[in-house]
User: Fold UPF0102 protein SAMN02745752_00270 from Marinospirillum alkaliphilum DSM 21637.
Amino acid sequence: MKDQGKISRQIIGQQAEAVACSYLLNHGLQLVEKNFRCRMGEIDLIMRDGQQLVFVEVRFRSSSAYGGAAASINHNKQLKLQRAAAFYLGRLNTQPACRFDAVTLSPDSSGNPLCDNWIKNAF
Assistant:
């Protein structure tokens, strides 16, 4: 039973990331990479906004209890994202300007992920 819950959370997470990616593409950003993983952690989306590289954390919450999706990006999560981004940047020949954004999502009336908020320079 636990595996089914994990699989459904993974599917919902993938759907949320796809919705967030489409949302950002529709707002002029360009996709660089999805689900970048390294020993430091994972970055959901890496996008380009003009000359700026944008590391995007995607958060879906079915409820606003406990502060909702944005509040779930706590200090420890921010540190993991910063370390993973530093690792990613260390692989590049030149260091572009960069920022950390967050896209929060909640379920629509059918339960599908819907973008609530795009937080630029989230931390």
User: Anything to note?
Assistant: The chain has a mean pLDDT of 88. Residues 2-119 form a domain with the Trna Endonuclease; Chain: A, domain 1 fold (CATH 3.40.1350.10). The chain has three helices and five strands. The chain has one domain: 2-119.
